[in-house]
């Protein structure tokens, strides 16, 4: 309304709720007279522009209100049009001009009779830094007089949406409310978030409004242009001020609709990944996926305006570094870089270093910065800069992966992760410390590209969302491929196990004058142990027991080769030494760098026998080992020769042959069964020895063969 023009007589029973500027659109202000608030008016009033315009937007608004009530840091919220103080019942009034300002602190400045004519004029809605007080922190006061007609039935209130950092409001010398807490136990919130800034002044009337503001010491994240009433307070009826605050909160929530949707979707993915990891703790990919997909929820929670600035600032660096580390490990696993030990060690080291420095930085918020603001600011910078340097490791990993042959999904992850890392790292470098550099480049990085359900999406958010989509898809595909390979490998193991069971006898044929028992307990589906009991002419028996180095299918296939060769050689010679010599020559060059230990012995019906050893455990008799000439295992040296030694098995004695799975059994405390216990068990049956070793703590294949001469 032009100055001096009289306002037309308002209609009766209108509501004092003003017009609002929402996203650049201005609703026509209602001209009102008496103050009349009723739920019926709220139902019959035209829908405000900030309400969702479709069922889809309504769903997101409800979800936002549940999960993110009041969230919206950095969002420009609702503003009311200017109005005359005499018409406060008709509109909220923007109190931007006519303020008096003084740096410092004195309780007497709240008194309505205090003479503030010597104070400098200042505008509310701009920081005090840009109005002649650069670098000032601490206390300052704002004062102004308000002339209003007395209305006992009108409850007056002031709405302060943005203040840096704490405000105490005095009306006619009386403290009527505050935003945050002043020192010594200061609590303040992000100035870009709508806070609970509705402060009731009492019945409408003239008076002096004084606001005591405290600005916290600067941190590394601070920018230029801070301090004071950075948004002009609004004077209104209590009901209108409360609706103004709710309106601002809802508008800010709407601006976060896209981020809330992504956070909820990521949370579901994280929950599924946590379930997978808890079912299989060895699945490192599921663990890193579960951690990384918590990123949107963590950032959304950290922006909550109901969390004090000190906690939010203290946790931000820890959150960033933790999820950066999770992304690095995901890139290692998903882009085929896990086998590169050098990259893996660097990733572990940089992750520990980055998170450690950020924990140190976060711990600084536990102290009072007012005591030594320069020291704490320097400590903040020193602990932040190294973390900024380590941020480039994500770029190093995607560049290393790009040198390989990648399929389309992996290229999608590489390109989106590279773009996200570049934007985030560059934004951190030019954004942090911009108070001293005055660089404004970070503002261009956060310009909206498009909007989704009223929420803006910038380039960093866009590429971060692409990474969030690419990582679970690629992890799911890789997990599916690994499951398919595991199924195929399981079938191969089953086939190998069937072949091995056919080669290794489940029971031993009876031999006149000897009681032969055996026990075979592989640690896995297939084992690397083997034994053969071959009857010979004239009542003699050839017993061979051994162990192949390595595990799995490779060892099982080597066992098949050895057993086949043994039976072929046994048709040519019955000498244990000659048998081992020929077997060694056949295995040399066919063990793929491995070897096999083997014990061969021949025993007659009278108990006399000969034995040769190729790096295996000596047999036990009477609780002691039989001494045999030492020799190399099979398959290492083609020209190796083996010697024989004779022994006698008396009637009633038991000869025990076993593999190293018995003495190397390990219990839960890490204690080995050992050779002394093995010797004490050697007089027992094969089945008893094997089961006792298994119960102690089996870690390797267990094979036991015993020969007892009848009395």
What do you see in this structure?
It is a single chain. With 711 residues, this protein is an alpha+beta fold. It has 3 domains: 77-253, Sandwich (Jelly Rolls), CATH 2.60.120.260; 256-483; 504-709, 4-Layer Sandwich (Phosphatase 2c, domain 1), CATH 3.60.40. 40% of the residues lie in helices and 19% in strands. The chain contains 18 helices and 24 strands. A 6-stranded antiparallel β-sheet has the order 5-4-6-11-8-9, with no helix packed on it. The longest helix is centred in the last third of the chain and has 45 residues, at 459-503. The protein is elongated, with a radius of gyration of 41 Å. 41% of the residues are buried.
Keywords, please?
elongated, alpha+beta, Jelly Rolls, Phosphatase 2c, domain 1, single chain, 24 strands, six-stranded antiparallel β-sheet, disordered N terminus
What is the strand and helix layout of this fold?
Layout (H helix, E strand, L loop, with lengths): L20 E2 L2 E2 L12 H6 L10 H13 L25 E2 L4 E5 L16 E3 L15 E9 L4 E9 L6 E6 L2 E6 L18 E7 L2 E9 L18 E4 H18 L1 H23 L4 H9 L2 H8 L6 H26 L6 H23 L9 H18 L2 H10 L5 H24 L2 H4 L3 H5 L2 E5 L2 E4 H45 L10 E8 L7 E7 L5 E8 L3 H19 L5 H12 L8 E8 L4 E7 L5 E2 L2 E2 L18 E5 L5 E5 L15 H8 L4 H12 L4 E8 L2
Antiparallel strand pairs: 1-2, 3-12, 4-5, 4-6, 6-11, 7-10, 7-12, 8-9, 8-11, 13-14, 15-24, 16-17, 17-18, 18-19, 19-22, 20-21, 20-23, 23-24
């Amino acid at each position: 309304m032009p100055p001096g023009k009289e306002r037309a007589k308002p209609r009766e029973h209108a509501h004092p709720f003003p017009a609002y500027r929402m996203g650049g659109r201005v609703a026509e202000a209602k001209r009102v007279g008496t103050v009349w608030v009723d739920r019926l008016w709220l139902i019959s009033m035209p829908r405000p522009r900030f309400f969702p315009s479709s069922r889809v937007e309504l769903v997101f608004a409800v979800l936002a209100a549940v999960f993110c009530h009041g969230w919206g840091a950095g969002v420009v919220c609702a503003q009311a049009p200017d109005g005359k103080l005499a018409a406060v019942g008709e509109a909220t009034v923007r109190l931007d001009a006519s303020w008096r300002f003084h740096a410092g602190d004195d309780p007497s400045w709240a008194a309505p009779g205090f003479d503030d004519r010597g104070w400098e004029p200042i505008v509310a809605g701009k920081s005090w830094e840009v109005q002649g007080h650069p670098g000032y922190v601490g206390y300052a006061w704002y004062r102004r007089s308000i002339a209003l007609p007395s209305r006992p039935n009108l409850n007056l209130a002031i709405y302060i949406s943005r203040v840096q950092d704490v405000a105490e409001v005095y009306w006619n010398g009386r403290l009527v409310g505050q935003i945050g807490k002043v020192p010594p136990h200061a609590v303040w919130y992000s100035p870009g978030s709508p806070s609970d800034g509705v402060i009731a002044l009492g019945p409408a009337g003239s008076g002096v409004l004084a606001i005591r503001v405290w600005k916290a010491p600067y941190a590394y994240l601070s920018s230029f242009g801070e301090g004071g009433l950075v948004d002009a307070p609004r004077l209104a009826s209590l009901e209108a001020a409360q609706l103004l605050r709710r309106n601002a909160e809802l508008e800010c929530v709407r601006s976060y609709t896209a981020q809330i949707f992504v956070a909820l979707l990521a949370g579901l993915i994280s929950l599924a990944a946590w379930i997978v990891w808890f079912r299989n703790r060895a699945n490192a990919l599921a663990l890193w996926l579960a951690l990384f997909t918590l990123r949107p929820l963590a950032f959304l929670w950290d922006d909550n305006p109901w969390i004090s600035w000190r906690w939010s600032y203290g946790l931000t660096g820890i959150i960033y570094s933790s999820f950066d580390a999770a992304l690095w490990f995901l890139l290692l696993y998903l882009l085929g870089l896990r086998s590169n030990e050098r990259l893996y060690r660097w990733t572990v080291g940089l992750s520990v270093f980055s998170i450690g420095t950020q924990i140190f930085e976060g711990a600084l918020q536990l102290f009072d910065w007012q005591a030594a603001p320069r020291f704490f600011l320097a400590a903040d910078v020193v602990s932040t800069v190294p973390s900024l340097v380590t941020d480039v490791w994500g770029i190093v990993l995607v560049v290393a992966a790009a040198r390989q042959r990648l399929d389309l999904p992996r290229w999608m992850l590489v390109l989106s992760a590279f773009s996200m890392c570049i934007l985030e790292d560059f934004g951190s470098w030019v954004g942090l410390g911009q108070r001293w550099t005055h660089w404004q480049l970070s503002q261009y990085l956060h310009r909206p590209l498009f909007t989704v359900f009223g929420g803006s999406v910038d380039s960093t958010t866009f590429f971060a969302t692409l990474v969030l989509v690419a990582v679970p898809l690629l992890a799911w595909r890789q997990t599916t491929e690994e499951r398919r390979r595991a199924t195929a490998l399981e079938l191969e193991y089953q086939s190998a196990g069937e072949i091995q069971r056919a080669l290794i006898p489940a029971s031993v044929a009876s031999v006149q004058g000897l009681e032969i028992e055996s026990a075979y307990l592989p640690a896995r589906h297939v084992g690397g142990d083997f034994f053969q009991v071959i009857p010979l002419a004239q009542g003699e028996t050839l017993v061979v027991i051994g162990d192949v180095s390595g595990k799995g299918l490779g060892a099982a296939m080597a066992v098949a080769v050895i057993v086949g060769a043994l039976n072929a050689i046994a048709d040519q010679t019955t000498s244990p030494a000659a048998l081992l010599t020929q077997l060694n020559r056949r295995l040399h060059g066919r063990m793929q760098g491995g070897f096999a230990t083997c014990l061969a012995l021949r025993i007659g019906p009278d108990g006399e026998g000969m034995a040769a050893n190729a790096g295996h455990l000596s047999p036990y008799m009477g609780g002691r080992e039989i001494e045999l000439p030492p020799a190399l295992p099979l398959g290492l040296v083609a020209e190796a020769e083996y010697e024989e030694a004779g022994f006698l098995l008396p009637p009633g004695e038991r000869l025990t042959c076993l593999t190293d799975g018995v003495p190397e059994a390990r219990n839960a405390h890490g204690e080995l069964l050992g050779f002394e216990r093995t010797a004490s068990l050697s007089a027992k049956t094969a089945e008893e020895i094997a089961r006792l070793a298994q119960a102690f703590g089996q870690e390797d294949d267990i094979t036991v063969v015993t020969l007892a001469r009848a009395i």
